[in-house]
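Lab notebook: predicted structure, single chain.

Context: the supervisor wants predicted structures on file for every construct in the current expression panel, including those that have not yet been purified. This is the next one on the list. No modifications to the sequence; it matches the entry in the shared construct table.
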Amino acid sequence: MKRHRLPDTDSVEELARFWDNHDLTDFAHDLQEVSEPLFVRGRGTSLSIELPPTEAQHLKKIARSKGLKEAAVLREWVLERLHGFSSIGRPPDEASAAAQKPDGE
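Prediction complete. Output recorded below exactly as produced.
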């Protein structure tokens, strides 16, 4: 019987294709028991948002152009907004409008 080799890749697509055509029991000789978790969830809180399809497509294009996942781009934007909001004590739009008003208004 031919012994299969596990793929050496980080590509989710390649791994999905591989496991679509192979069974884990074919690799019993490569399995090892672990005593500690290998994947640990981050300590952050996950949120879900809904976007209209056109905005979701726009977000995908922006993320692709930056070489990031959509969630990473959204996280970056939210953190920028939150940091701007908390450093001044009011939303950035209000802060910039107040800074542009001439004295005495």
